Amino acid sequence: MSVEQAPVQRADFDQVMVPNYAPAAFIPVRGAGSRVWDQSGRELIDFAGGIAVNVLGHAHPALVGALTEQANNLWHVSNVFTNEPALRLAKKLVDATFAERVFFCNSGAEANEAAFKLARRVAFDRFGEEKYEIIAALNSFHGRTLFTVNVGGQSKYSDGFGPKITGITHIPFNDLDALKAAISDKTCAVVLEPIQGEGGVLPAEQAYLQGARELCDQHNALLVFDEVQTGMGRTGHLFAYQHYGVTPDILTSAKSLGGGFPIAAMLTTEDLAKHLVVGTHGTTYGGNPLACAVGNAVFDVINTPDVLQGVEAKHQLFKTRLEKIGQQYGVFTQVRGLGLLLGCVLSDAWKGRAKDIFNAAEKENLMILQAGPDVVRFAPSLVVEEADITEGLDRFERAIKHLTA
Ligand SMILES: *Cc1c(COP(=O)(O)O)cnc(C)c1O
């Protein structure tokens, strides 16, 4: 039974919503696979994937099935009780990674908040109150809570909210000497994204992550990988740390973990986890049965050779064609990234104009992303069909052609 709803339109946004977002002019109302339809019935191809979230596209039958089945059984019980979907998903994550313990929450920022609190608590318990410094990278992004914007390396997100959280140092990314100079026995954690996502789809160098691991070990500091954007198959491995072969002490996952349903996780070892004793941390919805039921379905589809190996093949399709477009129209100097997280670095002539390219793509019925003003980002579904890739990139080329004409 459906209830008649009052009509709403984009203009209503400015009347009723806090103006912290500037959404596009159209409103999506339905999705299937890598296609989305707006209120007027216009069909778009989705290479944005809800910012690396809709990892299996829209309305994937396995996810819809899991959510519907769970919706008919049990929605929420709080953490006063545990639940079956949460335990099942935690077991899968533990079996498939370095981790032995899982903490569930609802967003990437919350997973990182938990990671940073755990790192500080471990250092406090083991070494005393002087060891609390966190080292993070310039241009990094770790979420929008007060702690996470302060750890993030973009002051535009942390300025103007009162006193900053102290004990946080920022160093240039991929600069091992800078890390060596900054780290000390007061460092409790080094926090890195294996690929800086919001910062421009910039992959870490192998030697950098390896060196960071060694420096952390020398100084009894924990290595934290923020895999909120790179995790759950995005790079063709379940997590990007597995691509690099460098194991963190704490890993955070969100975005693709729920395929569009809000869920996040912090993964760690038993030895570290034991510092978060009863009462030290928590969140009402963390490990919610609905979210975890969907998370289980996402995990079961993604963690298969079929899907993970498919990511590399799709990466090549994107990369080859995007490089060609970049050369032909002189818009990109480089296409970088791993798997289905790709960034096209704008040439000098096009610097600062990623938003114009976003708008031009939208006119050609294509959803893409920026990663800052100088990088065009693609984060499509991992199961996007080849025909959709071809058609989407045809639309993208038309957009670039018109824009450069
Ligand atoms: C998106 C993102 C976050 C924040 O996740 P939210 O769910 O928006 O809180 C944190 N870290 C990275 C690397 C991200 O890409």
TrEMBL record:
Cofactor: pyridoxal 5'-phosphate
Transmembrane helix as UniProt keyword: no
Location in the cell: Cytoplasm
Cofactor note: Binds 1 pyridoxal phosphate per subunit.
Keywords from the named record: Amino-acid biosynthesis, Aminotransferase, Arginine biosynthesis, Cytoplasm, Pyridoxal phosphate, Transferase
EC number: 2.6.1.11
Source superkingdom: Bacteria
Primary location class: cytoplasm
InterPro entries (UniProt xref): Ac/SucOrn_transaminase_bac, AcOrn/SuccOrn_fam, Aminotrans_3, Aminotrans_3_PPA_site, Class-III_PLP-dep_AT, PyrdxlP-dep_Trfase, PyrdxlP-dep_Trfase_major, PyrdxlP-dep_Trfase_small
Annotated pyridoxal 5'-phosphate binding sites: G108, A109, F141, D226, E227, V228, Q229, T284
Chain positions found as N6-(pyridoxal phosphate)lysine: K255
GO cellular component terms listed in the entry, alphabetical order: cytoplasm
PANTHER family in alphabetical order: AMINOTRANSFERASE CLASS III (PTHR11986), SUCCINYLORNITHINE TRANSAMINASE (PTHR11986:SF113)
Subunit architecture: Homodimer.
Membership in a protein family: Belongs to the class-III pyridoxal-phosphate-dependent aminotransferase family. ArgD subfamily.
Additional comment: May also have succinyldiaminopimelate aminotransferase activity, thus carrying out the corresponding step in lysine biosynthesis.
Protein name: Acetylornithine aminotransferase
Organism: Pseudomonas helleri
Lineage of the organism: Bacteria, Pseudomonadati, Pseudomonadota, Gammaproteobacteria, Pseudomonadales
Gene name in the database record: astC
